[in-house]
Amino acid sequence: xxIEPFFSKLPAKHLCNSLERDALGMEHGPTDMIVRYKNLASxxxxxxxxxxxxxxxTVLYNMSAFMIxxxxxxxxxxxxxxxxxxxxxxxxxxxxxxQKLLGNW
Length: 105
Hints:
Layout: H1 12-24, H2 30-38, H3 42-69, H4 74-88, H5 92-104
Helix pairs in contact: 3-4, 3-5, 4-5
């Protein structure tokens, strides 16, 4: 008698989504994620924080582009983006990218 794994009976789309969520840590509770983070080496923590900063900068950059397309006044855009930069505590390198965008526009 051949025993098949449970996930072999699931549709491929469901399996892929479930595996993706597990890889991203979305299948775990917040306490699991905190414990996982605390157990990382310092260089892995730094890499993870840099990846998060890059994601935040991308979101801010895209938000700025959208506001420009919607003809929001430049002063309002600068104020909103700088306020969000101050709240996000992102790294200096990523901050420079956004400041360059705001300065050139």
